[in-house]
């Protein structure tokens, strides 16, 4: 998954981009990059690691100019490694341009083969590079026209920022898979970001989300907008952004992420009630849903697991391995809360089931007499081809096992998932007609995938 | 403040010490160190920074042996810098020894002057070095006897671990200011740590806390205990460990930290009620008290502030400075929760008041119509001389201002502190006869300070 | 300037490449890179800095395979920065390939414009990328045929190594500007390197230099050779390699670099004799010529300047700046040798004159009564367009000043350059018909430049 | 071995100390440190590594003040590691002081035991710490008087710089083992350094060497001198400084190091002639003696071995190990010079013989038909206890083997050492009555060692 940020019209463009990327750090921790334009020349800095470690004062000073775009990356398409760090940056016939992409193109392989057959060189594994080649090869007279022509050929999820010497361009794909929000600073600079939390940090006013299929150009302080693509058959806003990915203080697709998550928990309490003494969360992502579950069920909310402030670092595993080592470095159980209690523990999703299993065992080892695992989304059964980094179907436990089997595997006394209908209710779209729920339903929205996967039968059926 | 950890009788002594220190990282982030003994030679590694960054596999491999002690440090006595990183490590007439100290000696300055007059050299600013000199100068025949003679001369707070070529020694001062807990691993190794959370991580069984004034020697797999010091007039267990310092999953001085904090919040709700729509915490330290406040008051608990997972890093401040910059990098307000609401916000303490002020302003900027600040401890009016790093009296806002003045400064609609009595109730010692509450009451327990500060009148009186 | 190295058919290909690059480190200190093939996949590591700092054991382990190419770079065409570090590495229609280039293409700008007009993207500033695009766009059926078609379009200096999944290819341009030598290891592996010193280090047998215009393919352990290009009008082996650039223990263009340099000094003594008490060198590059000068003139050779072993690091300049600061960190004068003496000091060339001036002043400050500067090559008056990093004409002191003016500027008592004829004699090609001497004569050999610069009049004429 | 530097009375004291240490880097590459005084407080920075890597601009800025001392270290007494990095720095009854020591104390072990018995703590392995303890324990009224009392107790080699808040003190032991030279800057600042090369770099005027047994105090811009120690029975200036250790452009013990080395080579040619075609040096240390040998013998000097500019870095050894790997990374043989020639190769000394063996083999592999190894000093048979880092006797090849045996081991056609008499002649002290030659003669000069080792019979006798 990735996060993108751009700003134009501000003397501290690269510094604000770095702060914006920090606010979006939860969207990608593998690498980060900024490309800035001083009106004549683009300069880039990309590196593996965290935003605050990469962008020191001397690095920022070497990125002068009034406009900049930035990117944080957790690998999706393409492997990891510095060559895939974005924003990508090239020279072409029209000068220089740079691109930062959140999403994933589903027809990149075919387009890449076609381009290579025409002599194109690919220097990264990123599907994003396909867009750059298509743009450079276009015979259209302007940069925007070239870009539109290029994007008309691609299929999939893209919220994209582009920077040339003199303009910043933002585009959101016609399905609107990934978020992209426009803001404005008091001094007049325009800002674009994956989530509102980045705008809040730098005190930009939130103007609005870009429309699905909208293309915005900001040049000489003027913003122009257009809808140059054929509208998608229907919207496909990523529901998993609400379930897990986005930061809870963000407002996304018109709804507060925090409130959606609380409603998921409330609905979950209604659908999957449990006899218990207390409700706890798997912190931090499970907290809002756990509070919602508590409020709807009347079972008191408490803190049964403490999240370490020092996770995310690598550790040397002792030879006499500690049980649940990985989870223990991240989470500690609060014995006094759990001892002798029947506990509802709320998490956002189960991927492989291994972490859930460790958590349930930790809770029991700390004295919980019953552990009822409640998941604030439906079973994750299908891989995402639109930008979320999920494993293949065979690794998704819910693709190959029933809920009962999973409950047994994770050693929970009971396991309950939210229904698809309940999920729709929480996002105030009961029929899920404006959201993509493919990871839960297998209903992919793009032509290519809806044909191949649409007819797939559930492996565990 | 500091954290200490020791283990003896385990083939992976330094590796487990490193994990133990990681679990105690919240007690000190400035530097960390481990000294290990292979039975003949002590080896040390000390460095500025975080445990997980310092102790890489090659570093751990260079610390072989069955016994090790470790230390994480946030400066108290003595300035910062690598020379003050512990464990300290010296050669003396009897061989080698190393020491890791949590606490602060109140008569270190006098003893240091006396020792220097006799020709002693001091290579750090740490009061701990005084103990080493006294020990080395003792004419007693054994290491323990030397240590006892040395410690009889010092006054103040100390939980200390010492490592020689062939034994591990642990001592807790007669007032019992700082915690120190004994554990045992399944394989038979003894473990000592500042807090139980470190024992939990490495799956050591918690045996018991050391008694105030107890000295434990572990040698050749055998543990001997003694009470070699004159008992203190009364116990002085640090109440601030419960209020703020310890990790909530630890059991400290016989009580669960988490439960104490919840009771602080419950008592606070009784003493300082507020008309409000919801209760939020300043995360993460204020969470248990906020939940307690919610349960006692019946006002719903919710999450109004999100803590970033990437705090603790340094940032380049933009020139057009963002309001409340420092706080914003750490905390984000959840607008949807706060908008139009009367909010009780619970924090553990107020030091200078500047952060509280920023938080209150952030909450109002995010839409809260009333902000009622509730503090789960009494006003912090006196510096700690027993190991907590508090600023001087003149910087403590509560030492020089009334509660009304503070409320006005932090721009809260109301401000309420917990009473000293309430604090005692929460730790189940209503008269506070076994706890040190000097930071709140000015009643210092050691001879030297009780004379000087005991008669002091409150500056703001 | 750059150095290249390649090996195929050896289980430690990347390790030997790293040693080979270390031996070629004098050819470029800005960045280094290795690309290795395991038969299926190419893996790359490129970084700013020195070979021995970049290629640690874990980095080498991540470059498995029986074949590898490497590159050390000091910027020529294209600015500095990681994006220009070689070997370059791309995917194209036929799979993956990598390229390492020593030299400079004189028609890169025109070709780049043409390629960009067709939609090509350029990700580096390197002229080398032009070759990659031409190759990828070729419609020829095989990799070699594509490469030949590509190289037929370029003009200039190139010794190139290419690596695909299954073969190593080496090419030398028809003029033979840059060296490239073939070697063979006892175990059968083929090796290619810019200079023989790299083969000596890894104990490869020196087979022969590649012919100008020769293309060698090594695949499945078999070496095929061909001469696919139109022969150049005449050879243009870079005479400056002998004068300064190559390592003295190398054998280059059939002659020992060390012996050539000694002969340069001998001829210089004949052409530009001096009345003096001793001959010293500007170390280390001036040493062979100084010994030759001494032997031919009978004036004793001695060491008047000591080179620091710790140069090449950056230094903080004191505010009260030390005279000749930069030179002093590199060179120390030996007072006892110089005091009261008339000194001949031999250097290989003068570029801007500033360093020579500092050296002459240092020698006089150390007691030399006369300083006679002798240069073992003719005046450097023309920039190199074939791969040596020389400044523009206006910065070349000999392009704008007479020898007398230069002598005065550098404060030498006399200044003597070697003649072009003498230079030819030393390389055993009195008419210079097989060497490029453009930096001294302005006679550029490639079509494009011979037209433009051939008619240029000397600025200082 | 170590190098020391001090300056007082200059606004850029720490910056000039860093430059001075860089000039002395050849005296120690393991660690470096600077302690500076701003008149009130001493500040230290010590680190493993090279001067230019350690002292970056921010580090220098944190060392303000008009006075500073610095140290470069290669371990002698005491093992390696950061705790032994100097200058050492302590607090004592009189305030703060720091010490930088070049040399080695022969009675440190006894004094250490005595001090430890009195309760002293030792934090390093350095014998230097003994001096600090003795000083701190002295009951004398002034710092100088304490220092004198302390130094009267020690025996051995010491050139020492001490820094207090307000003065810089320099002392040289009564035997004068190690050099120490006084200089003065134009602006009036006094400078002290191990060698004149450091004064030359910062353009300080060389005033004079300190006398053996002299103590100099510089305070408030005034220099006071005294001779407070009992004169030594005789001088013992280290002859190995001239043979190998010092930088050739330095003037040491009144003689130019370079000239002494040339005279060593001339005398060697007379004592150990050889029939040969050319004389080469093992660079760089053997160069002056090789030139002297050439001049005295009339055999032409040439360059047969090239020293890499990139040595001193660690390397990954290939599994199929290259013959003479270590030497090959440092030295390359020049085939064209050596081929078919009878070669005299001059080196300064032989320690274990392994490197000499590799060099002789390299020369033969490069075509030399005869290799005559000539050593510009007598056989190294005895360890140095005065500060040079030599291995134990059993590892010194000349302590256990005859010259013939060594010649055979190193595979040389002949081997000749300089005689002790010849060595004396070269330093203009034929009877060696002012030099220590213990490493060659076994005649140790200090009481303690002259008794124990004086009567020793040569192992190989």
From TrEMBL, chains A, B, C, D:
Pathway: Purine metabolism; IMP biosynthesis via de novo pathway; N(1)-(5-phospho-D-ribosyl)glycinamide from 5-phospho-alpha-D-ribose 1-diphosphate: step 1/2. Gene3D superfamilies: 3.40.50.2020, Glutamine Phosphoribosylpyrophosphate, subunit 1, domain 1 (3.60.20.10). Binds 1 [4Fe-4S] cluster per subunit. Binds 1 Mg(2+) ion per subunit. Residues 2-221 form the Glutamine amidotransferase type-2 domain. The active site is at residue 2. Keywords: 4Fe-4S, Glutamine amidotransferase, Glycosyltransferase, Iron, Iron-sulfur, Magnesium, Metal-binding, Purine biosynthesis, Transferase. CDD domains: GPATase_N, PRTases_typeI. Mg(2+) binds at residues 285, 347-348. Its cofactor is [4Fe-4S] cluster; Mg(2+). Its EC number is 2.4.2.14. It catalyses: 5-phospho-beta-D-ribosylamine + L-glutamate + diphosphate = 5-phospho-alpha-D-ribose 1-diphosphate + L-glutamine + H2O. PROSITE patterns: GATASE_TYPE_2. InterPro entries: GATase_2_dom (IPR017932), Ntn_hydrolases_N (IPR029055), PRTase-like (IPR029057), PRTase_dom (IPR000836), PurF (IPR005854), PurF_N (IPR035584). Catalyzes the formation of phosphoribosylamine from phosphoribosylpyrophosphate (PRPP) and glutamine. This is Amidophosphoribosyltransferase. The lineage of its organism: Bacteria, Pseudomonadati, Myxococcota, Myxococcia, Myxococcales.
């Amino acid at each position: 998954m990735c996060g993108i940020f751009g700003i134009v019209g501000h003397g501290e463009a690269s510094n604000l981009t770095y702060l914006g990327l920090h606010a979006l750090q939860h969207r990608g921790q593998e690498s980060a990059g900024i490309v800035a334009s001083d009106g004549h020349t683009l300069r880039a800095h990309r590196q593996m690691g965290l935003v605050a470690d990469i962008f020191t004062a001397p690095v920022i000073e070497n990125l002068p100019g009034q406009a900049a775009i930035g990117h944080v990356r957790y690998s999706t398409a393409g492997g990891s490694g510095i060559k895939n760090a974005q924003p990508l940056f090239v020279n072409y016939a029209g000068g220089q341009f740079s691109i930062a992409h959140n999403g994933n193109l589903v027809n990149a392989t075919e387009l890449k083969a076609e381009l290579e057959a025409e002599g194109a060189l690919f220097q990264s594994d990123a599907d994003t590079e396909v867009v750059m080649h298509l743009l450079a090869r276009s015979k259209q007279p302007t940069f925007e026209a070239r870009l539109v022509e290029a994007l008309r050929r691609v299929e999939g999820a893209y919220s994209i920022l582009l920077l040339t010497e003199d303009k910043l361009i933002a585009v959101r794909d016609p399905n609107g898979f990934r978020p992209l929000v426009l803001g404005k600073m008091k001094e007049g600079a325009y800002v674009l970001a994956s989530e509102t939390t980045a705008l809040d940090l730098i005190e930009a006013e939130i103007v609005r989300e870009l429309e699905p299929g909208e293309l915005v150009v900001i040049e000489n302080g003027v913003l122009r907008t257009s809808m140059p693509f054929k509208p998608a058959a229907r919207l496909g806003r990523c529901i998993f952004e609400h379930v897990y990915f986005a930061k809870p203080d963000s407002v996304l697709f018109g709804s507060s992420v925090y409130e959606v998550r609380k409603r998921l928990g409330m609905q979950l309490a209604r659908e999957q009630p449990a006899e218990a003494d207390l409700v706890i969360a798997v912190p931090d992502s499970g907290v809002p849903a756990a509070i919602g579950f508590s409020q709807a069920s009347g079972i008191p909310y408490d803190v049964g697991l403490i999240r370490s402030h020092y996770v995310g670092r690598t550790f040397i595993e002792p030879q006499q391995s500690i049980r649940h080592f990985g989870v223990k470095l991240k989470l500690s159980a609060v014995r006094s809360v759990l001892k002798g209690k029947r506990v509802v523990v709320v998490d956002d999703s189960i991927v492989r089931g291994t972490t859930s299993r460790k958590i349930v065992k930790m809770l029991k080892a700390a004295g919980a007499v019953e552990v009822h695992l409640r998941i604030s989304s439906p079973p994750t059964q299908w891989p995402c081809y639109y930008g979320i980094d999920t494993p293949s179907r065979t690794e998704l436990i819910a693709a190959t096992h029933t809920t009962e089997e999973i409950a047994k595997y994770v050693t929970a006394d009971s396991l309950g998932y939210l229904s698809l209908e309940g999920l729709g209710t929480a996002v105030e779209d009961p029929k899920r007609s404006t959201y993509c729920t493919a990871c839960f339903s297998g209903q992919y929205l793009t032509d290519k995938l809806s044909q191949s996967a649409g007819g797939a039968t559930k492996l565990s059926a």
